[in-house]
Design the sequence.
């Protein structure tokens, strides 16, 4: 006789990223729950569509009626999906790719992310790992040599800015029109854009004009 696992009441399931993983669960449990809920949602939507069209055939499509997701279950989908996404896009994946010899251009292409943003995030990651190594007595994180290599790999701030200039030129072209129509003063826009990319407002204004 098969033993059916007891179902956890919906009211006891976490609906916040900050509650996951926990209570002995791992990100793999979050992935399984995400798959379970999204499959239920797909089946419920498909059945509803077939019934609306008058095409639902119990003999062909089965007698099982999947219930639409509740509000709480939709929050579960978001929470569990975020847990899984952060595992898959963890900065260590970028770190390992760079150590294997990948270029920043290749990493940017693989992740669909701006190269300058990747470099900045990698630098922040390396700083956090080195801080962990210092605070934890050298048991975890990056030691001094690994940290120095990572910072060199990230490139200087000047290199990070240079890598972003082409994207900034495209952004300026689009956002210039907003400023021209009074959506935002050009000077304010330039200052805000410059803060993001590490450029001066004067450079941004020069491009925008």
Sequence:
């Amino acid at each position: 006789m098969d033993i059916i696992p007891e179902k956890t009441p919906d009211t006891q399931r976490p609906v916040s990223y900050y509650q996951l993983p926990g209570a002995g669960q791992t990100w793999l449990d979050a992935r399984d729950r995400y798959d379970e809920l999204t499959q239920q949602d797909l089946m419920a939507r498909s059945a509803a569509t077939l019934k609306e069209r008058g095409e639902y055939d119990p003999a062909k499509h089965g007698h099982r009626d999947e219930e639409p997701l509740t509000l709480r279950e939709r929050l579960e989908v978001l929470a569990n999906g975020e847990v899984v996404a952060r595992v898959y896009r963890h900065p260590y994946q970028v770190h390992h790719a760079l150590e294997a010899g990948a270029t920043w251009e290749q990493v940017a292409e693989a992740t669909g992310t701006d190269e300058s943003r990747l470099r900045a995030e990698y630098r922040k990651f390396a700083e956090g790992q080195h801080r962990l190594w210092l605070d934890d007595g050298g048991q975890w994180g990056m030691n001094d040599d690994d940290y120095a290599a990572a910072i060199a790999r990230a490139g200087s701030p000047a290199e990070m800015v240079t890598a972003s200039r082409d994207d900034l030129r495209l952004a300026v072209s689009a956002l210039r029109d907003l400023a021209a129509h009074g959506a935002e003063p050009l000077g304010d826009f330039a200052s805000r854009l410059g803060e993001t990319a590490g450029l001066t407002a004067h450079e941004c204004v020069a491009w925008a004009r």
